[in-house]
Input
Amino acid sequence: MDNFLLVNPTILVWSFYRLINLTNQLQILRLNFCLTHLNVYAIFEKKKT
Output
């Protein structure tokens, strides 16, 4: 196992990069979701008044 990691550091770096990329995409999605919710809420509040 240690030999495998030594031989293939690029695979390790690549999977680590993929993991970071995935979490970033999830955070962006969550942010967009929250912003959309806020916009919808603001529109409904304006319609009420």
Summary: Residues 9-48 form the longest helix (40 residues). The chain has a mean pLDDT of 84. The helical segments are 2-7, 9-48. Residues 7 and 39 are 51 Å apart (CA to CA).
